[in-house]
Input
Amino acid sequence: MLSRLLLITLLTLLNGCASSPKFDTREVDFSLTPISVIAEQENSPGKHVLWGGVILATKNLKTSTQIEVLAYPLDSYHTPQKDQKPLGRFIIHHPGYLEPTLYTQGKIVTVRGDIRKIEKGKVGESEYSYPVIYAQQLHLWSGDSNRVKTRLHIGIGIGL
Output
């Protein structure tokens, strides 16, 4: 009886230590990138994506927040990999207010949402087309998100 209680307590504690968010990826089209969406603008609206990257700018609007992001490939935890080649820029449209001192330049985010439109803008003096993602789930990563992650899996046998 004591061993069962100890095992249940251990499993509960291990489950509580999980730091990666759970994204609903059932309808996500993983083949899409900001660059591919810009190339095929007419086929992209309404598609669901899971993208992430580095925040370039955050702007609060009247009823929403707009975040400009430089996209990077995601790892298996859905963390943007800044050591990889960028995949283009996109804009996150998030309903409501997000604190710009938290969602500041250089921070890392991952968003799940649907592509609503392509918005024209500028990068410096150059014209740029931004895919606009309406956020359904948004995760701001902590400063140590790119560290090596380890997991303990308990099932049939024990793996580290």
In short: The CA atoms of residues 58 and 101 lie 9 Å apart. The mean pLDDT is 85. The chain has one domain: 22-143. Residues 2-16 form the longest helix (15 residues).
